[in-house]
Amino acid sequence: PQAIQERIGKASHKPSFASQLIPTLPSDELQDELVEEKAVVPSLSLHGQVEIRNHSIAWTLKLQVEQASRAYVIKDIAHFIFLIFQKEDYFVSQKIGTIRLSLDQFNQASQNLLLYIKKYFIDRNEHSYFKFSYGISPRDCGRYLETPVSYLNDLVPLFQALDVFQYVTSKAEYPLIFLDDSPFIPEEEIFKVVKSNNHYEIINTAYFGFIIQEKLWIRHNHFHIIKEEHRYFLDKLATWIYHYQESSPLIFSQENKAELMQICNIISNYVPISLPDELQIHDFIPTFAFSKTRNEIALNMVWSFGEKQVHSKQDLLTLPYTYQASKARKIYHQLLSAGFKEEFHSLSKIKIVDFFLKELPRFRTLGQVQLDESLEKLLVEDPAVIDIFDDEGFLSVQFDFSMISEDEIEKAIQALWNQESHYQTKQGKVLVFDDESLKVAQSLQDLRAKFSDGKIKMHKSRAFSLSETFKDNEHINFSRDFKKMAYDLTHPEEFDIKPYEVKAKLRSYQKEGVKWLSMLDHYHFGGILADDMGLGKTLQTITLLEANLKPDQKALILAPASLLYNWKEEFRKFVPHKQVEVAYSSKTERIKQIEKSATITITSYPSFRSDLKHYQKQSYDYLILDEAQMIKNSQTKTAQALREFDVKTCYALSGTPIENRLEEIWSIFQIVLPGLLPSKKEFSKLSPQLVAKLIQPFVLRRKKDEVLTELPELSEHLYSNELSSSQKTLYLAQLRRMQEMVSGASAYEIKRHKIEILAGLTRLRQICNTPALFLEDYKGDSGKMDSLFELLDTIREKGSRPLIFSQFTSMLDLIEQELEKKEMSHFKITGQTPSDKRQEMVYLFNQGEKDCFLISLKAGGTGLNLTGADTVILCELWWNPAVEMQAIGRSHRLGQTKQVDVYRLITLGTIEEKIQELQESKKELFNTVLEGQESRSNLSVDDIKEILGVE
Fold first, then answer.
1. pLDDT tens-digit map of 325-351
2. Contacts with 31 (C-beta within 8 Å, 6 or more apart), sequence order
3. H or E stretch including 467?
4. pTM for the whole thing?
5. Are strands 210-212 and 871-874 parallel, antiparallel or unpaired?
6. Final residue of a domain: which of 683, 707, 731?
7. Cα separation, 577 vs 554, whole angstroms
8. Are strands 802-806 and 852-856 parallel, antiparallel or unpaired?
9. Helicase ATP-binding domain location, by residue (predicted)?
């Protein structure tokens, strides 16, 4: 046990590189380094200052050393930061001398500022922002950091977080800057407008401040970022204040009152301005009344200032106050755009369609719109009422447009389907499609609905997606049948199932699984039961068939050859009254068994493909595909045969329906529920997240740790070993050959020689086990074989019984030879073991016979119930973690009462460590869609280089 703990610890807790390196240093040298470091770690902080130099924002920094009487100016900011990140010496002053700089010596606020300056100015080579101080020594090069206005929002908070910060002007020093990009209004009046004779004059009455870079207005310690549309104007205004106010006063005549008010409006966004009563701005609401003449559209416009109404431009001149000039300009601009004149009463020859589609919406944004009766009759804006209902196995979508004759609705729907903005009827009516209707039409197309013969139809399996997409749309009516189907898809646990007679007590999650399967069956949907291995997918399926198979109906079950008799035994145990036939033997025998037309027929995938014509002569109501990952490749003859096979309902059973690529789930659904997913080309463009959403109602997955809370603990260990000297010689030689093959090769060349490369990787893995797997005359030791039997001795002492898995049957043969020498009894299953013999060995082992069970990873990794074992040993890591979990699931499953220990044998310093890392990094796809993994065949070029240690 002590040796085992050491091995497990060695593999599970790798020492850090630093802990390996430190013992190699002389102890006195290390001690000197530590003392020196301790002596030069003062507490440092930065002080900040900003000023306006040459119309630029100039930042400076000072260094404050703990307990020093003052802070010292940093004369070259960029160089100072360089020294910090290089951890080099910096001369502070004659009094303090030189200190060793590092980032962690500074307080947090200082660190934040230093990191920002490094990232945005130094790392980007923006050295032009670092300026020298005029009239000072050249050593001061880089004393100032002069930044554009765009950096203010970041730098002001960073500088103001420092212990000391100042904004310095020629007249004052401020400890704070108020930065804002929305107007702030000083209390004192800055401008006023005075009336003199027949004109108005703008007078500057208080300090205005100044503007730099046309973007920043500064008044005392208020920094205000100017809106882009006001920059030119305010810059000119500031120029006038300081250079031309006396010589060129701002004077406006009565006729230019609108322009005066525009200027006053802009000024008032930033500073207070005093206006006489007649210049107080009053808002107004325009009303646009449109009527139709023979060939034109007439406009009568009214502006309402409260109770006061204006009907002409002449009326505007009599107002005792002014109006919003900018709003008036927008209205006049819109009049011209629509073909009217800049008058309150005007005519336009605009086309009726263009008026309704383009101009009318714009008028509505400006004010109130009125249409006369003739225009009202021509405009149809009511949103369509949409009905969705079940229609002979499809979902039909029907649009109902009011005020459109029945014979034109089909053409209107076609226009909407084509994402056109409108449809014009023969009578001249204009049906305007609102944004919501256009979105609905687009969403239906995204869900692959088809428009044909005036009808919109889609596959019934998209009911869930349809209900989720339109659940908040008040204009869509779902039929009662559709609502029931959508509810059942989202609440299958509430579905009522038929009575059944099964000689087993189903757990609650298994009953829910049967309800889910029965619900799908009710609506003629297929699905994937993707429960973890060991949760009873077989029992749930048998219960479904018992509850739903009518006397004249039949089911066909396809499974790996190794599981055929396991299925038959499960039927015998749970529903002995069902007629079950296994069609598996010679072709002649299989045909006889098929022609018996048993209620349940069980066969293998290869046999089904071979006997397809005979199965097509029968009529099956249910097709069950066990271990459905067998059909994950859509190009195989088996997958093609299944797509051609006509059956009412099909279910797939697989704990790992995705092992390598997202396309595998597509292949399964093309058989289980054709029509749910788009073409393979379109499917390849979908994200895993969208695929998960589409298949959600048709996949049921539960994990053991979620539903079997009483299941004993599963404890996983890495059990390490090292190469023997003879192994190491062979391993390094093979590794060098592989590295030479891959090093310097292009990605194309690596892909072209992938078969040879994968074969070479397999050879490396065989050496990790024992070179005897391929060298008949190998007489050397094997670190893994030694550690395996050391582990087996300990397991036998504890009274435990292990399952021993290996990818290599020759490895199992070598282990078998050693077991016989040690007089350890065992069973062995490989791909050559007959199915009926497998079941017999499984039964005997679970009854307590023999010490251990040798199993080929691929041949016995699925479908076996070996709860008689409480230990699992994986002799080598497999590229695909899903295969390993299937193997572990042979013991850690329903019916297990003991804790299960899993030992993964791993050879240190070899590609097995890389494979372990690769396993961890390849799980994202399955986790997103179901919870998935990768396999050797899916290794990328980068994976291969990483495994071989090639740069």
1. 778 989 999 999 999 999 999 999 999
2. none
3. helix 463-469
4. 0.53
5. unpaired
6. 707
7. 14
8. parallel
9. 518-675
